[in-house]
Amino acid sequence: MDHIRPLPAYLVQRYHGWRATSFAENRSWYRRLADEGQRPRAMVISCCDSRVHVTSIFGAEQGEFFIHRNIANLVPPYEPDGDHHGTSAAVEFAVTSLKVAHLIVLGHSRCGGVQGCYHMCSGHAPELDEKTSFVGRWMDILRPGFARLPEGDDATRQQALEFEAVKVSLENLMTFPFIAERVESGDLSLHGLWNDIAEGGLMALDPRDGSFHPV
Amino acid sequence: MDHIRPLPAYLVQRYHGWRATSFAENRSWYRRLADEGQRPRAMVISCCDSRVHVTSIFGAEQGEFFIHRNIANLVPPYEPDGDHHGTSAAVEFAVTSLKVAHLIVLGHSRCGGVQGCYHMCSGHAPELDEKTSFVGRWMDILRPGFARLPEGDDATRQQALEFEAVKVSLENLMTFPFIAERVESGDLSLHGLWNDIAEGGLMALDPRDGSFHPV
Amino acid sequence: MDHIRPLPAYLVQRYHGWRATSFAENRSWYRRLADEGQRPRAMVISCCDSRVHVTSIFGAEQGEFFIHRNIANLVPPYEPDGDHHGTSAAVEFAVTSLKVAHLIVLGHSRCGGVQGCYHMCSGHAPELDEKTSFVGRWMDILRPGFARLPEGDDATRQQALEFEAVKVSLENLMTFPFIAERVESGDLSLHGLWNDIAEGGLMALDPRDGSFHPV
Amino acid sequence: MDHIRPLPAYLVQRYHGWRATSFAENRSWYRRLADEGQRPRAMVISCCDSRVHVTSIFGAEQGEFFIHRNIANLVPPYEPDGDHHGTSAAVEFAVTSLKVAHLIVLGHSRCGGVQGCYHMCSGHAPELDEKTSFVGRWMDILRPGFARLPEGDDATRQQALEFEAVKVSLENLMTFPFIAERVESGDLSLHGLWNDIAEGGLMALDPRDGSFHPV
C-alpha cells in the first residue's frame, strides 16, 4: 500500500475544528442519527463541480439530503443488465429503501462536463469520442439533449444543453419502474433545478412548457 | 412533463436565505469562480448517505473540493468498455482535466450499502442477488473485500467491511493508468478515511499495515 | 557583504522539517500554485506583532490570503505623490491585479504601535515626536483616531485607540478611488476585526454604530 | 460606515475552529504573551504573496517572529524626511524596541511585483511608470537591482531580479544607522533567503560572492 499517503495537515486541522465546534454542539443529534439511521426527506442529484454546493444552497443539515454527485448530474436510462450502475443504484436505494419524498436534479452554469459534450457532439473533441474516454462515454447519456437543441450561437446552445442535462435525467428517471409507479401514486415528486454560479441564481423547470424560471 | 412538481416551499425559503446571506457576502468571489473556472485542490469520493458531509467536516468552501458521491464510496476497477461509468468518468475528469493533487476516499460507519453487501455475501439478502438489483450489482464491487474479512461476530465484520470499501476502492483506483502514473511521479496522492458518525471520529488508513487510526 | 550571516541552525532545521512533511504532502499543489499563479480570495492587513497570526486564526493555506503586515495595521490616506508607499502599493496590487473579494483590517490587543501613539499624542513620548522617528511618523496616521477618543481611564482609551486603528484604516481605504468604486459596485467588501490575544477573542466592527462585537 | 460588511461565514467558522483547538491547547501561553509582551527572536520581511508563508516554512509559533510583509519584500533606503514610511517604521520598532537578534529578508520565485518591475524597467509596462501607480513607485526601490542584471534571457534575468530584491533590501537596511551600528557590534545579524514555491526550495545568500545556495 505504498500508494497511500497521510492526510494533508490542513485537512486534519479543519477536521479537528469541525469536531470541536459543529460536532460538539450537536453531539446527541449525531448519535441519534447513527443509532436510528438516516431518514432523508429528499434525494439530490448534482454535479461533482466544486462550485456547486447543495449543502450550502439549501442549508443542509446532517441527515436531511441523500446526495448523489456525478459529472453533469446525469441519470442514465433504466438498464438492468447486471453491470455496475452507480447512479441507478443510488436512485434505487433512495427511492425503494429510504423512501424519499422528493427527487431533485440540480444542474448548473459553466458545467465542464456539458461543455465537453457540446464540443464532442459538434465534432470538436475527438478525444472524447474514443471508446476509452470515460467522460465521453458518460456524456453519451446527454446526446438526445444535444439532438434537440434550438439553433443559435454557441454560448446560448451550451447553456440550453445544461438545461437539457436536467430534462434528460428527469426523463430517464421516469423509465425506472419503481419511480414511475411512485410518481403515479403521488408518493414521490420530481424536480428540476439549475444553479447560476456567477449570480447565485436558482431556476426551476416549469412542467407546463419545459422552460426554466427563477424560484 | 406531468411528472415534474414545483420545488417544495421549505427549500425555496432556504435557498433565498442562502442567497441573502452567504451568497451576498461573497458575490464577487462566486462571480470570479464562474469566470475563471474551478481549481479544486482535492477530489473526495464519499457515500450518498445524508449523515456524511465532507463539506462540513472539512469546512469546504465553494471551489475547494471536487466531490463524487455514490453508494458506499466505491470505485469500480478500470474497465474502458465503452459503457457508461459515472464514477470512472468523475475520477478521470478530476485527475486529467482538473489535475487535483489529492484523491480522498471517505468511508463511514453504519453504511447501508455496506450492510446490504454483507447480508448479500452472507446469503441473507436474496433480493440483492437478483440481476435487476442495481444496489446488489453495484455492491458486487466490494465482494473481494468480503472474501478477505477476518473471522468474528457480525458487527465487527460489518465494520471491517466498511474499511474494506475504502481499501478496495483505493486498490481499484490504482488500476487506472492515468492514476498509477501520477501517483508514481508524485503529482497525485491517495488517502483513505473512515468517519464514525456517532462519535464524530475520523480514522485514516495507515499504509504500513492496512489498519485505520484516528487522525 | 560582510553584514550577511548564515541562517541560524534552528531555522534551517525547521525549514527541513516543513519540507519533509507539509511540503512533501502537497508537492503537486505547490507546483500548481507556482505554475498557475495565486488566486487569493481575501487580503488581510494586520500588525507585524509576533502574537498575531492570521494564518493560524483562519487556518490559512498556501494561496488563500494576500497578507500585508505593518505596524498597527494602518492604511494611510490616498496620496499619489510619486513617493514610495508600501501599504498603498500592496492594496493597489491586491485590488486591481489580484481582484480579491474581501479586504480585512485586523487589529489586536496590547498593540505596541498603538500604545506608542497614545503616549505620543498624550505628550508623554517626545522621542516619537521627532522628525527622525519612523514609528512616530507612521503612527501620525492614527492621530485623527486619538482626537475622537471618548473620556476615560488610560487603559480604556488605549484599547479604544486600537479600535480606531481599524476604523481609521477602513476610512482611509475608502479614499482610494479604485476601492470606493469596487465597494460601490459590490465587487469588494471591507471588514474590520480586532483580536484579543489573551483570550483568543475576535470582534468585528458593526457598521451600524461603529462598535465591535464578538463574531 | 455603509462600506463595512459582516465577516464571511467561512472565516467565522474557521476562527471558531482555531479557538476551540489550537488556542484552547495553548491558553496559558497566549495569556502570558499578552501579559508579558512579545519577545520575538527574529524579524522577517517577506512578500504579501499568498503562496509565501513564513509561518509554515519556519513552523512559526505565536510570539516567535515579528513579520513585515509588503510587495516584493523591499526595504527603501534610510530617509528620515518626516513622511509615513511603513517599512522603515517596522524595522525601527523591531530593532530598537524589540531588539530582535536576526533580520531576515525572504524573497521568492514567481513574484508578481518583481515581474512588474522587470517589465517597467524594460519599457514594457507604461502604466507602472505613471506617477499615480503605487506599485510602480514602490518598485522604483528595485531599479538599482535591475541596472546591474547580467545579460541573458528574460526568465533568467527576472529570477536574478528576485535575488536582487533581497540584496538591494539588505543593502538599504545597512543605510539605517541603528542597524549598521548593531550589525557592527554583533548584536544583530542579517540574512537573505529566496523561496522556490514550486519546489519548496530555500536558498540563502552567500556573503562571500553574492550568490544563493540551498540551505
UniProtKB/TrEMBL annotation, chains A, B, C, D:
- Top-tier EC class: lyase
Provide the alphabetized UniProt keywords: Lyase, Metal-binding, Zinc
The cofactor named in the record is: Zn(2+)
Family matches, as Gene3D superfamilies: Carbonic anhydrase (3.40.1050.10)
Amino acids binding Zn(2+): 47, 49, 108, 111
According to the record, cofactor stoichiometry and binding are noted as: Binds 1 zinc ion per subunit.
Q: Set out the biological process GO terms recorded for this chain's protein.
A: carbon utilization
Please list the GO terms describing molecular function. carbonate dehydratase activity; zinc ion binding
EC number(s): the record gives 4.2.1.1
> What InterPro entries does the entry give?
Beta_CA_cladeB, Carbonic_anhydrase, Carbonic_anhydrase_CS, Carbonic_anhydrase_sf
Catalyses:
hydrogencarbonate + H(+) = CO2 + H2O
Q: Which family does it belong to?
A: Belongs to the beta-class carbonic anhydrase family.
Q: What does this protein do?
A: Reversible hydration of carbon dioxide.
Q: What is this protein called?
A: Carbonic anhydrase
Q: Which organism is it from?
A: Mesobaculum littorinae
